[in-house]
Write a structure and sequence with these properties.
Distance between the termini: 59 Å
Radius of gyration: 24 Å
Number of helices: 11
Shape: globular
Length: about 375
């Protein structure tokens, strides 16, 4: 470190400045800001969530207020408007804040009120992404991934590696409100370093699908029940390159989709039962986190969560304490789902393949099947819900 130009101390040329407060733009500035905000919220009466560090909650006389922080963007909501305004006034005494009123646009996510529900949409984000890729006038497609063209590695490389990475990274953020894109985007992320012309064609197909679904978003509505149920699925040895399986799950709180995932498994599965069992372990870990968050907020019903799997072997394996010969090689960490079933936290049931909602996260699907599952995942059009 050196002294700033024109501010050198001739008597102490080797001395540097000691910062009394954090400066915007430095690496430690976000941490210092969050610490100051957290300390103030705790003195105000908020409780810091142990499950999600960016979440704070306040309880008083049966009323609850939730505060979610992302750097200097804050969402505050509660069951009592007077209490929310009081807490905002306290917050304004220590920080320069601006109340933007009802939630409308947050981190490129737009909230649109419809009949009895709310839709999370990223219309502007998708339009900007098409402009960035120079595909505003492209033709539309009904699905983001082809069911006939396999993932191959051609010999012709794609020369614009920066453009591919930039668009794929933008597509990753888009999956926050578009679970129907999860599988296609996950597949694109696997070729960041070995890029070919075929992979760029896959990106353009996803963008052409986005062109036709600009007004689609994730619907959230009031649910009569607050029980947790989840669907897990796996496409055994679906990747033709390394023969690894793809896991996918969808977690519902009542009728609302709250968590989803499409990810390639770390190791090669020797059977479809093993691949499905690994997928069950993934969704069990996610459901455990969701349950712990709801319990902390006092919103959990206490009922066991239901996991749905379309493989009988994996379903039986969750309840059978005997290690079969063909599962001896499975890592120990996958077997924690058995403990959850034995303790009564989870109930693993069989579901037919046609009713498996997580099927959309593991493989490309034909148009009728894809559209049906997309609707069941609450990805709907704004124009149809208006």
């Amino acid at each position: 470190m050196k002294q700033p130009p024109c501010y050198e101390d001739p008597t102490h040329p080797n001395h540097v400045c000691h910062l009394q407060r954090s400066l915007y733009g430095l690496k430690q500035a976000p941490r210092a800001w969050f610490k100051r905000l957290r300390d103030f919220l705790l003195t105000t009466g908020f409780n810091a969530s142990k499950t999600d560090v960016s979440l704070f909650y306040y309880s008083s006389d049966g009323c609850q207020v939730f505060l979610l922080v992302y750097v200097d963007d804050i969402i505050m909501m509660g069951s009592n408007a007077t209490l929310v305004n009081t807490l905002l006034s306290r917050l304004a005494t220590a920080f320069k804040i601006r109340d933007l009123g009802k939630l409308g646009f947050f981190l490129c996510i737009e909230t649109v009120d419809t009949k009895g529900s709310m839709i999370l949409s990223q219309r502007r984000y998708m339009s900007n992404l098409l402009n960035q890729a120079v595909m505003v006038d492209c033709k539309q497609l009904a699905t983001p991934a082809s069911t006939t063209q396999a993932v191959t590695s051609s010999d012709e490389p794609f020369d614009n590696l920066t453009q591919y990475r930039r668009i794929v990274e933008a597509l990753q953020y888009l999956t926050l409100t578009r679970p129907d894109l999860s599988y296609a985007v996950n597949r694109l992320c696997q070729f960041m370093h070995t890029l070919t012309v075929d992979h760029w064609a896959m990106v353009k197909r996803v963008l052409r699908y986005i062109k036709g679904t600009l007004d689609y978003g994730l619907r959230l509505s009031s649910s009569p029940t607050a029980t947790i149920h989840a669907y897990s699925d796996s496409d055994w040895a679906g990747c033709p390159i390394d023969r690894k399986s793809t896991s996918g799950y969808a977690v519902f709180l009542g009728t609302n989709l709250v968590s989803w995932l499409s990810r390639k498994q770390r190791t090669v599965a020797r059977s479809s039962t093993e691949a499905e069992y690994k997928a069950l372990a993934d969704v069990a870990a996610e459901v455990t986190w969701v349950v712990s968050l709801l319990r902390e907020l006092g919103l959990h019903t206490g009922q066991p969560s239901t996991l749905w799997c379309d493989n009988l072997g994996a379903t039986y394996l969750c309840a059978n304490p005997v290690f079969h010969a063909r599962t001896k090689h499975v890592e120990i960490d996958y077997h924690f789902v058995r403990d959850k079933v034995a303790s009564g936290d989870f109930v693993v049931n069989f579901v037919s393949t046609k009713d498996q909602l997580a099927d959309v996260f593991t493989k490309p699907l034909p148009e009728p099947r894809f559209i049906a599952l997309r609707y069941k995942l609450n990805v709907v059009s704004l124009t149809l819900c208006a």
